Each structure stands twice: as C-alpha cells, then as structure tokens.
From TrEMBL:
It comes from Rothia aeria F0474. Signal peptide: none annotated. Keywords: Oxidoreductase. InterPro entries: Flavodoxin_fold (IPR003680), Flavoprotein-like_sf (IPR029039), KefG/KefF (IPR046980). It is an enzyme of class 1 (oxidoreductase). Residues 1-165 form the Flavodoxin-like fold domain. Transmembrane segments: none annotated. This is General stress protein 14. Gene3D superfamilies: 3.40.50.360. Pfam families: Flavodoxin_2. The gene is ywrO. One of its GO terms (molecular function) is FMN binding.
Length: 182
C-alpha cells in the first residue's frame, strides 16, 4: 500500500526541513511516491487529469508543506481547488477518496508553545489547520493525525544543533508514516 506524498514548498532547494524530509522519503521508493508540486508545475498550471490519476493509484495521501500565514503555500490551495472536483472527490458520484487515508505533515517556523491558547498564535496547530480536516471529512477520506515539526524561522540560527533536530525530525516523520499509513 504505497503512500503519495504531495510536497508543496515554493523554494525547496533552500529549505532545511522539507528538503531533508524529501531526501528521507526518496530512500523508500517502494513505500512512497514523492510528488513535488512546485517542480511539476513551475508555471502554476495543474494537469488535473494527471493529478486525479495519481491520487487514484494510491491508498494513502499525505500533504507535506511548511505553514505559511496559518495555511498552506498557494500552489497546494490551487491543487485542492482544481483537483478536488465535484463528481470525482465529492458529490453523489465523487468517491475518489473514499476509504483512503489523508493527512498532513507540516513544518512551522515558531516554537510549539506559540501554538496554544496562551501563545502568540492563540490556537493549536490542529485548530489552525482545521480546514484540511474539514476537507478530508467532506471528501470522505479517513483523516489521520497531524505530523508537526516546529523549527527555527531563520537561516541565521541554523547551526549544528539545529541540523541535528531537523535530521531527527525526518526519523520521527518516518515513524509517524509507519504508524498511520502502514
């Protein structure tokens, strides 16, 4: 049962976390199909039929992205708008996600303590990203627990200790995938 990981990072080459996670996923091609939206669609024009076929070929779907302004990068929002069509993803004949697991894996540039009622965000990550859970429910997917990694927000603070935390996060991410998408 292979998992499609839809990676959406507008500048993955400069990413610390997403690039590390993609490298880890690519070490398991028998288990994961890594699909990088910004690499596939640099012009922003999504091939809807191709994307729908890719989803249909997999039992598990993970949306992997850095959180941008309490949401996903714009191309992933466009992917949802374009690909999750009536009659395919939802509606009386829309069964594409029925009995499929769907979840998200995100990196955030703020400490976990900021994503709480007492923190500067005022909400948990799950509350902030609730639209993904609502979408999963609406398209009859089996929404899985979030995978989150809180990291540094600037490259200036990226030292050996930060690099180790990012490397450790890749192992944690793999363990999460093994638990929920096996």
């Amino acid at each position: 049962m292979k998992t499609l990981v839809i990676v959406t990072h507008p500048n993955i080459h400069d990413s610390m976390v997403s690039k590390t996670w993609v490298h880890m996923l690519r070490q398991h091609p028998d288990r994961f199909t890594v699909h990088e939206l910004y690499s596939e669609y640099p012009d922003g024009v999504i091939d809807v039929a191709r994307e729908q076929a890719l989803v249909e070929e997999h039992q598990n779907i993970v949306l992997q992205f850095p959180v941008y302004w309490f949401n996903c990068p714009p191309l992933l929002k466009q992917w949802c708008d374009d690909v999750l069509t009536y009659g395919w993803a939802y509606g009386s004949k829309g069964k594409a996600f029925e009995n499929k697991k769907l979840g998200i894996a995100v990196s955030l540039g703020a400490p976990a303590s900021e994503y709480s009622a007492e923190g500067s965000v005022g909400y948990t990550v799950a509350e902030t990203l609730r639209p993904f859970e609502l979408t999963a429910n609406y398209i009859s997917a089996n929404y899985q627990p979030l995978f989150t990694f809180h990291t540094i927000d600037t490259h200036e603070n990226y030292d050996e200790a930060a690099a180790q935390l990012v490397a450790d996060s890749a192992g944690d991410y793999l363990a999460h995938l093994n638990t929920y998408y096996a």
